[in-house]
Specification:
globular; 41% helix; 158 residues; four-stranded antiparallel sheet
């Protein structure tokens, strides 16, 4: 097989750009402080559009750790900093072989995530030491709900 060096270079650059896009999306969410100064999870998962072909990634801030699933990524953001912790990156099953050692798109963290998903899923599901308890989470969600209710009515909470 003959490889076009320019085409391979362009594909590699596009692959590297995706990593930058992921970190920019995560940092943008952290900067928006959806839960104030509280550390939170960023759950990114692909969903198919209504046309049945196109996909989009949904970036969801969460206070609780979701269950791991294929075609998803999980990060933890810390407002007031540029610290973003990678929890997992699990691609669609049909893409798993692309990330193995020796491939152009080799990625050790993706391989680690796939291994844990298949063999130690409970490890990926464990809450972190700095996660809030259920009562604290409920209070934050109640506060957000109250604020949204007042804003819908045209008032501003101070």
């Amino acid at each position: 097989m003959k490889i076009d060096r320019l085409d391979a270079h362009d594909r590699l650059n596009e692959f590297k750009k995706q990593s930058l896009d992921i970190s920019e999306c995560c940092q943008d969410l952290v900067n928006k402080r959806p839960f104030g100064d509280t550390p939170f999870y960023i759950f990114a998962h692909a969903r198919t559009e209504d046309d049945g072909v196109s996909k989009r990634i949904i970036w969801q801030p969460r206070l609780t750790r979701p269950k791991p699933q294929t075609n998803s990524m999980l990060f933890k953001g810390y407002p007031g900093s540029d610290l973003i912790k990678m929890c997992w990156m699990i691609p669609a099953r049909e893409m798993w072989d692309q990330y193995k050692k020796g491939n152009l798109t080799e990625h050790s963290f993706v391989c680690w995530s796939i291994d844990k998903f298949e063999n130690e899923r409970a490890l990926l599901e464990q809450p972190e030491d700095d996660d809030l308890n259920d009562d604290a989470i409920d209070k934050i969600y109640e506060s957000i709900g109250r604020q949204a209710k007042f804003e819908k009515a045209g008032y501003t909470l101070i």
